[in-house]
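Quick illustration for those who missed Monday's session on complexes.
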Amino acid sequence: MSKILQIGPLSENFNQALAAEHQVTALWQQADPQAFLREQGAQFELVATSARFGLSAGQMELLPSLKAICSFGVGYDAIAVEQARDRGIPVSTTPDVLTDCVADLAMGMLIDIARRIAESDRFVRSGDWEKRGFPLAMRVSGMRMGIVGFGSIGQAIARRAGGFDMPVRYHSRRPVADSPYTHEADLQELARWADFLVLACPGGDATRNLINAPVLKALGHKGYLINIARGSVVDEPALIDALQQHVIAGAALDVFAHEPKVPQALREMNNVLLLPHVGSATVQTRQQMEDLLTANIKAFVESGKLLTPL
Ligand code: NAP
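Prediction with NAP bound:
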């Protein structure tokens, strides 16, 4: 039995199965988690966490025996990965198994905001259809898609865009070798070219406020922003301003700067789609993510090696 510190809860099934196999301490159930870490942190060699709960630099400091961090999800912006690297602590995530579901949702969000699906649902439910007609929407097929961040998820979105005959270009720091899609080194140029700008890059300091007022201006009054990456990638006040001033046509957002807080200004707008960070949230994918987290923990306990390290 290994002593594992679990930072936040996952599904009840997962929590129970982990506790049956290992000696697990639930940090979120401690009356004062910081005080607990100060007093008891030295006993833990393994941390189980998630993209949402992460592991801060302050927490890591209180875990002097830590040897590995196993996380649920692919985002690692909430994990102090630099400190982990400095201490030689490997970090695993759950790549690949969630790619399809996140890409599916990005397409769903794009079609929704362009064709005003959620908005027209509200229109019918409110009885407004009996009073007037519904305004025209924006075409999807054949329109241009710009993708920011062209890793597993960005490329899966591009493949789906092909089914809608959408020309695709992408922006990332380095071009992807042998990709059939055009790399655009200048983000503003990509925004100017695109009808839909889809964000699929990591969060964290390197991408903070990458989508700012000039990029939104370049996207233009007929352009839509789709964000399934991280809220930190977008300058949220600049986005609200751009939506209010009709600098861009609309936005579909699965992620926000201060989740689960969503600015009132966004909630009041009709030309935005707001989702509660559900990119990977299907029964099948969440199960696969938990299975991969479990497999990483097992591999580390048995062999000292992670299966899917960063
Ligand atoms: P990935 O395979 O690592 O791809 C990341 C891509 O972003 C790469 O193309 C990378 O290329 C690019 N990138 C990194 N830093 C950049 C920068 N500063 N500027 C521009 N491009 C940059 O990751 P993935 O599996 O596709 O996942 C991408 C992100 O999606 C995750 O990090 C996570 O935050 C988010 N996500 C969200 C949900 C959700 O529920 N909404 C679910 C899963 C994942 P270069 O290194 O060449 O720049």
